[in-house]
Amino acid sequence: MSVEIRTLAPPVDPLEPGPLILGAPDDGELNRELLEHVYHPRRGWALLFLVAAGGTGLLVLGITVTLLVGIGAWGNNIPVAWAFGIINFVWWIGIGHAGTLISAILLLFQQKWRTSINRFAEAMTLFAVMQAGLFPLIHVGRPWFAYWLFPYPATLGVWPNFKSPLIWDVFAVSTYFTVSLLFWYLGLIPDLAALRDTARGVWRRRVYGVFALGWRGSARAWRHYRIAYLLLAGLATPLVLSVHTIVSFDFAVAQLPGWHTTIFPPYFVAGAVFSGFAMVLTLIIPARKLLGLERVITLRHVETMTKVLLATGLMVAYGYLVEHFIAWYSGNPYEQYVFINRATGPYAPVYWLMIFCNVVLPQIFWFKQARTSLVVIWVASVLINVGMWCERFIIIVTSLHRDFLPSSWSIYKPTWVDWSILFGTIGFFSFLFLLFVRFLPAVAITEVKELRHELAAHGPAAGHDAVGVPLAEEESQS
Amino acid sequence: MKISPWQGGGRAIGIATAVAVAGLGLTALGAAFDPRRALWAYLVAFTDWVGIAVAALILLMSFHAANARWPVAVRRVLEVIPLSTALFLVLFLPVLLGARELFPWAGPQQLAGEAQRAMEHRKSWLNLPFFTVRAAFYFAVWIGFSHLFHRWSVEQDRSGAPGLSLKAHRLGAGGLPLLALTLTFAAFDWWMSLTPQFYSTIFGVYYFAGSFDAAIAVLIIAAAWGRREGIFGGALTTAHFHSLGKLLLAFTAFWAYIAFSQFLLIWIANIPEEVPWYQVRNRGAWLPVGVFLALFHFVVPFFVLLSRRIKREPEKLQWVAAWILVVHFVDVYWVVMPHLSPAAPHPHFTDLTALLGVGGAAVAFTLWRLRGRSAVPVGDPYLQESLRYDPR
User: Which residues on adjacent β-strands are paired with residue A80?
Assistant: First the structure.
């Protein structure tokens, strides 16, 4: 049955959200449109790629200097023994949370708006986790011994300290990365097969063919595929929570004021999802335009994501509020001083920037105008990521630089090497991302096709997400 | 489908009222002999049930905020449960009147050293007048919101105006921050301040997590009961129970996550302000209670709820939900009672009578508010869709 799907006109009923797919593309059209950016790189891609490669060069430089000089090339020193290394780790890991949330948790919640953005968000997750992993790896000082972090029986007789959450991090992050990679790759297989079947040139076909693992799209294969996909979603769901929970343990198990607080696990998870969605928006708003994905990534998707930003931003604000209240309530002078020092001490500007970006700014998303203005959303999403970086800076540096003993207080300043590694990872992240959109479809094409069929089959009666009003009906109305 | 206003339930209301009168009466009798013991039992019962009513309101508002359409068929029940906050305002009086027996900051207890210093410091927050003002504010928020949602929905039964849904969606989203704060500070006031020195930032979330899990359980029991009674006119399908069961599974796990986070962080840091709270509970006869909670509030229900078959059969699912209510009571008991008897739990008959008394009153009140109107929001524009709900 072929049903035309309403194009432009916004829904008349205010209770009906906007469409998930604009127009009424058939499967062939969707295939051509969504694979287009793989076959014909967009203008400007090469330029962006060069810039990103330059950023990656900066990263290589930073790492080289670190390896030659040692960790002394960084600004951290007692009492601030942990600084950019862990700030950036937590920041990138946080960003890496949206992907799995979108692909796994929203799948279990039967949210259809996840369909066009899951591939994109999962790729972002993988690349963000790679950046995150770099930091502890370099920070161990002798990365060539990093494998000592894994418990394995060796003649050395040395085991990692299982009581340390840093070791739990190794397990949590590597598990998360593995499951996310499998999930992403599994989702890619039918699209890889489509690439194999449509690509020009023998070599392209061969390479895509190898990665498509002989996918023929038989009913049996689809059945197994569905089961595997659902199982991986179920497995990935607790992982979304566990990774940032364990990252929060890195701090909260200590006795340091500002680190030791019981709200940290859920509050870190909320913050991670907050920053992850902000990063998805930062990337998707330009990408949907540049890659010509506006038909399948609509304003509805963007608006829904801003609502997630608002909700998780409020959870983060709740965390701040409770932390501050309890610091006063505790009557513990050290606990209280941390929060006074954060707001009025040498790092006060960073603190207030954090409050502005994470607490004040997201409140604009109470208003429909802000939720539907792409420019406003894009700027806000960038600022939210700045804010979340500031949050980690505040938690880590302000708690360390003035602790119990005033005689050991000091000021932390990052060096140029610190900054070049941070900006270098942004470059490397973009580099990987640009490669991804160059060689792989940025949208899960098979899933979009499936959604389109569902919408067409159920028509307006399918409600929730089916906004496909048969064109005839609309014409008769107008 | 035709749904007429629900007129039944007379017998159920009668039974619940009888249980309430008997339970509260016997608790009062217990109070005549041992006022302190009965008051503590009452605090457990009160915080157990009022938490469920408020969590039900949060669930309702979350559904509105998310524009959720599938729960419309069960929403009337969820709208009525929070109305009982008005009843809880009255039931709060014994707690307020007995505050001096319950809270170390209000009573004549002599504290010394650090505990006394902490009490001194918190005086501007923890004092009876301000405590009362705060409680009044919490109840104003809960009663106000629950009545608004109920009123709009009932109005929609008649008019079917979609604008009312829009209003409910907006208030649902906009009101959630206020609900989060009132429940958090209620947890700080009614539970956390029972210990002179203790503080934990996650405490509000802990109260929320347990109560929310129990509220979902109450909704499942009510839905299963209503389905048997036929008050929904066949509106509920197995798919609805499946989704409610999934929610119960998710929040059983969430409760465990929050409980474990708090435990691990306090136990591992081992600092003197915090760790006594767990020391009391990890010693002697309280330890088995904690182990029981870990096993039967999490491990067992979690694995039972993984079963798709159980979630889709209301007759089975309701028993799991009932079990969640039992373990939630144990959880509340475990949080509150060690303050009264640190060495070991000393069960008392008022523990049971207060629980049944307050619960009976809440059930009778809720059923009474459910009567006389259709038990399904018949005017909701999404109702048709909810009736068809059947995700693959």
Answer: A77
